[in-house]
Design brief:
This protein is α/β, with parallel strands linked by helices. It folds into two domains: 2-73 and 290-407, no CATH class; 86-259, no CATH class. 24% of the residues lie in helices and 18% in strands. It is built from nine helices and twelve strands. The strands form two sheets. The chain has a ten-stranded mixed beta sheet with strand order 3-4-5-7-6-8-9-10-12-11, with helices on both faces. Strand 6 (132-139), helix 2 (186-191) and strand 7 form a beta-alpha-beta unit. Helix 4 (234-249) packs across helix 5. The protein is globular, with a radius of gyration of 20 Å. The two termini are 37 Å apart. It binds beta-D-galactopyranuronic acid (GTR).
Length: 426
Amino acid sequence: MQINSVFGFSVCVLVVWLPSSAVSEDQFNYDESLVPRYELPDPLTTNDGLSVNSAEVWRSVRRQEILRLFEQHVFGRLPRINVRLRVRTHERREIMDHSAIREQQTVYLTDDDTGPSIDVLIYTPTKSAGPIPAFLGLNFSGNHTVDADPAVRLPKSWVRRNPRMKTISNHASELSRGLQAGRWDVGQIVSRGYGLVTAYYGDIDPDFDDGFQNGIHQLDPENGTARADDAGGSISAWAWGLSRILDTLETHSQIDGQRVAVFGHSRLGKTSLWAGATDERFRLVISNNSGCGGAALSRRRYGETVKRINTAFPHWFCRKHWEYNDKETSLPIDHHQLLALMAPRPVYVASAQDDRWADPYGEMLSLYHAGPVYALFGKSGLRSSGQVEIGKPVLTDVGYHERAGKHDVTPYDWTQYLNFADRHLK
Ligand code: GTR
C-alpha cells in the first residue's frame, strides 16, 4: 500500500503540549507536505506472505502474529504475574442528590495487605434495571483528583511532583483534590445509564524509569533476571492492571463485566489500546489523543517520533522498540494494525485539533487503514481517508472525531463516547 501526503499545502502549527520534558519544537515536523512517503505493512498478509481472506484465518493466524509482533517490537509482553485478587470495599454511598452511588475499593494483589494494591473508584447510577455497561480508565494523578470530596482516599503510591497538581514532593497533596475532575464527566456518564470505574496508574506502576523494581514489578518472577528484549515496559504493566480491575468487575453487583469499555487519554490512551488488544474481554476500546505509540502511524514522523518517545520515556516500551529510533520503516508493524487487533469489537479514536504533537491526521489514517480487517467481519471502518471535519464525529462500527482545542479530555469527548456506546453496548 503506497501512501502519499494528501495535502498540497503546508500546515505550520507549532503549538504543542510537551508536559514532561522540554524539547525544541523545530526538531519535529508539523508540515504535512514533509511527511515522508511510506508503505504500511498489510494487516491481511501473513508473515509468510499469504493473504488472509476470512475472519477465521484472521483470528487463528494473523491476529496472533500481529499481537506477537507488538509484544516483540513495541510494548513488550504483559508481565507474567499470577495473582489471587482480594477486594475490600471502603465506601458505598449515594452522591449527587442520590442519583449516583460511589464506591471505593482496594484491590489487593497479594494475600498480605502491605503488598501492591490498586485503589478503585466506581460510580454507578442509583437506579438501573439490571447490570449496566461501564467505562474503565486509569487516571494520571490519583482518584482524589477525579472527585474533590475529602472522603476520596489519597494514593499512597508515588506521584509526580507537579505545580499544576500542587504537589511539592512525590506524595499526593490534599490541595490537588478535584483538579482533574473536568476530565471525568461523571454526571453525564451516570445520567446516561453507564458506570465509570477509575484507578490511579501509579498504583500499578509509578511512571518513572526505576529499572522495573516498583509497583506490580515487585511481584514479577522475571524480576532480578536479565531483562529480555521483549519484556514489557510500563504500558504493558498498566494494561495488565486494567485487566485485573476488569477481573473484579466481572463479579460486581451492578456492572455488567461483559460490557466494559476501556478508555484512556494520552499515554493512558496508548495503554487502553494495548489493553484492548491483549484482553478481548474489553467490549469497546477508546483512544483519546493517544498519539505516537498509540493510534498514530509511526511512519509519518509527524509531531512526536519514535526516537523522541523512547528517549523521553525509556520505560514505556520494550527495549527492542529503541532499535527503531529514526528507523520507523524497519518496524514490522505500524499502528493501524494495533487498531485492527480490536476487530470486530468497536474502537473509537479521538484527536484534538491543536494536539499536533499527537498527529491528529495520522491517528485518523491509522483507523482508516484498520478498515480491511473490520470488513472481513462484515463491519465498516472509516469510509474515506480524507480529513474529517472538526467537531463532526464519524460513527460506523468504528468511531472517530477531531475536536477543536487542545490535548485533553472534555465533556464533548464523553458525549461522543456515550453516543458510540449507545450504539454498541446497549
Ligand atoms: C507526552 C508524550 C506523549 C503523551 C503525553 C501524555 O509528553 O510525548 O506521547 O503520551 O506525554 O501522556 O501526557
